[in-house]
Amino acid sequence: MKTFFAFVKQHLFPAVVAMTLALLLGLSGWMQNVENLTLDLRTKSRVPWQPAMADPQQLVVSIDEESLAAYKAWPWPRRVHGLFLALVGQTKPSVISWDILFTEPSEDDSRLILGLKATEANVIFGAMSGENAVVGEKEADGLLPDDPAVKAARLMPLKNVTGDRKNLLTKPRILLPAGELALLAKSALVDTPPGPDGVRRRVPLMIGIGENVYATMSLQSLMEHWKVQPDEISVRIGESITISNAYAKRTIPIDDTGAILVNYRYSTDGFHTVGYSYLASNLNKKFVKKEEVKVPETTGRILMVGQVAAGLADMGPSPFSALTPMVLVHSNVIDNVLREDYAHEVKWWPIWLGAVVVGAAGLRFFTQRKLVAQASFALGVPIIYAGIATMLWISGSHWLHLVWPLLGFSSLQVFMIARRLIAEQRAKEHITGMFGTYVSPALVNRMVASGESPQLGGHEDEITAYFSDIQGFSAFSEKLEPAQLVELMNEYLTACTDIVQEEGGTLDKYIGDAVVVMFGAPLPLPDHAFRACVASQRVQKNLRELRVKWEGEGGKWPEIVWRMQSRIGLNSGKCIIGNMGSRTRFNYTMMGDNVNLAARMESGAKAWGVYTMCSEATKAACEEHGGDRVVFRSLGKVIVMGRSRPVPFYEIVGLKEDISPQTHACLAIFAEGMTKYYAQDWEGALACFAQSELLETNVPGKTPGVSTNPSLVFRDRVRHFQEAPPAAHWDGVHVAKDK
Fold first, then answer.
1. Is residue 734 a contact partner of residue 710, using CB atoms and an 8 Å limit?
2. What angle do CA 334, 323, 190 make, to 5 degrees?
């Protein structure tokens, strides 16, 4: 239960707050504009994957530049449109819809009326909703719903309308086509209110005027195309418009304002289009002049007549362009319904819930991992989410909001990463203050990254203790001036300390020339024994290099410096670790029997003529993690002072890659000699040790500072047992006489 409440407090609550604030901010106008821009980018990006052309059931008759040149100044005399209706009507299109207003009377309305009477097609003229206000001398636009002219007009209200109308787009008045035009042709509202950024993303399919609800141009055109009767269409505001008859079955999604979310697919070049003057001219040649000409197919099609010429006023922004003919808004809506290609806006709550879950889960799992993993998560999730949103729009026209979810998620991640960086910096400063002189900067960083405070109180843990000491150091004090001794020791101790810290060791203390190190504390190191063994060999190699350097510095240093040797002892096991000392002064250190044994390894190495010695526990732990990368030599079992049980001693010969064939041969012969030694085959053992003696690396008189080696030590022991054989129960264990 505590874990659950901790998760809620540390991870779930911040995610809920961040995503809720982002959701509320997403309701602001500027955020919606940014979201709309991302939708426009997605709309443009899907063009290569969508059908090349719109549904052929619709033909856009464009009043283009060529048409303006043919008929001169706009607006044209209405006789032009009357002739057009008479000609195109003979081809029997399903409906001719005019995204043009004829609300003002004209002196040649009679010619347009003649065309209306002559045409065999359904004709829809544009109407506009009007406001109720009166400003100055200007009269209110349009007629009230109960006006006789409205009742007489061919403006059919939708009958089966249910649902809450409180958000339905409603206007008090209506502007109808002038005079007899409203009686002969059907009328439909062409209102397409722009959004905050000017783009018509949601287009009303119906508008309430008075108590009635009327279809707009797009819906009315489809109703005429499919011969939909009043009882064959039903509307549920906020859900859908359902059309069902012998010609079509459609369920069109709408919002609570009665608008459809336009699924923009095409601009001017994506629709089947013909120029107004081109179509009229060819129809005139065919039907009046009886010429053989090719006429675009119009039979059974929806003809949408509208302005596309750049100089005309009926232009506005769209996802494709800042100046798009507004007739294409209706055309895109009609194409959406013809293809059943609807856009769907994903509701806010599943997005919010998903963002909260992902955000909280990310905080739970990645704040405990490396910063690069958390940063990768913080960057990767938005990229993946944006990719999913884009693919959903491309593949299924599902509008998954981008801006507010990404803002909330990114803000949450930035805040948590910043908080983590501040906390880690404080932790680093805290740990550096405690351990900066003990451990390497890399280990300090690992301690910070682990997220666990080091245990400073006394506790027992598995570590490897490391002791080193300079052979015959007292002689150095006699040979060197104080300043020289300080310079020499600083150079030597700096090199040793750097190496052990690079391998993850923690400096316990300096005791004169001695260096005491622990591997595995304060930060646990599973491979502490292997690291300690590697560090010991690097220290010995570095000392060899220093000897060469010091000798090369001429008379600066006496010969004793060139011959400096250091002995190292290692032991692994349970030790007491923590801050120890008085109330006013204490050190982070280690103690215990296993620490003492490491010191015995260092001091006892002299008796075997070796310079790095460890216990069997260290050897086993090293091989567990390092395999055969470190080469050991068994030196037998020893009972050290202070212990009653024998301890197996091993020389750390070196790292595998540094061992020469000569040394390999030496170790093999020496091991054979040890087998004969334990079997009390003194002659055989003596012969083996005599051979291995010739192959030893450290040779008295040749190697600086060397007085003996393991082959010489066991040769002398064999000779001793030849003169004074051991007791019958002898088990090969050597009893150390010194510490």
1. no
2. 40
**H or E segment to which residue 474 belongs:** helix 473-479
How far is it, in rounded angstroms, from Cα 348 to Cα 20?
Answer: 11
What average pLDDT score do residues 119-126 get?
A: 91
**Per-residue b or e along 291-322, where b marks 16 or more CB atoms closer than 10 Å to that residue's CB:** eeeebbebeebbbbbbbbbeebebbbbbbbee
Judge whether 630 and 656 are in contact, CB under 8 Å.
Answer: yes
State mean pLDDT over 114-139: 74
Structure-token pair, residue 608: 């075997």
- pLDDT, one tens digit per residue, over 621-671 is 999 999 999 999 999 998 887 777 899 999 999 999 999 999 999 999 999
Phi-psi region of 568 (alpha: psi -120 to 50; beta: other; left: phi over 0): beta
Question: Which residues, in sequence order, are bridge partners of residue 189?
Answer: 127, 216
- Measured distance CA(229)–CA(227) in Å, rounded: 6
Contacts of residue 82, Cβ cutoff 8 Å, sequence gap at least 6: 108, 111, 112, 113, 114, 115, 116
Would you say the C-alpha torsion 598, 602, 604, 609 has a positive or negative sign?
positive
Mean pLDDT, to the nearest integer, of 176-188? 90
The pLDDT of residue 704 = 78
pLDDT tens digits along 55-93:
999 999 999 999 999 998 889 999 999 999 999 999 999
Domains parsed from the chain with CATH numbers = 2-33+346-428 (no CATH), 66-341 (no CATH), 448-658 (3.30.70.1230), 660-739 (no CATH)
Beta bridge partners of 516: 467, 509
Query: Is the confidence at residue 431, as pLDDT, over 70?
Result: no
3-state secondary structure 364-423: HHHCCCCHHHHHHHHHHHHHHHHHHHHHHHHHHCEECCCHHHHHHHHHHHHHHHHHHHHH
- Cα separation, 71 vs 84, whole angstroms: 12
- 511 forms beta bridges with 514
Q: Tell me the residue type at 634.
A: S
Q: How far apart are CA 276 and CA 289, in angstroms?
A: 18
SS3 percent helix, strand, coil of the chain, rounded to 5, is 45, 20, 30
Coil vs helix vs strand at 52? coil
Q: Assign 139 a pLDDT band (cuts: 50, 70, 90).
A: very low
Of all helices (H) and strands (E), which one includes residue 594? helix 593-608
Distance, in Å, from the CA atom of 132 to the CA atom of 148, rounded to the nearest integer, reads: 18
Report d(CA 165, CA 207) in Å as an integer. 10
List Cβ neighbours of 647 (8 Å cut-off, separation of 6 or more): 597, 615, 616, 637, 638, 639, 640
Helices (H), 47-131: 65-71, 78-89, 109-118
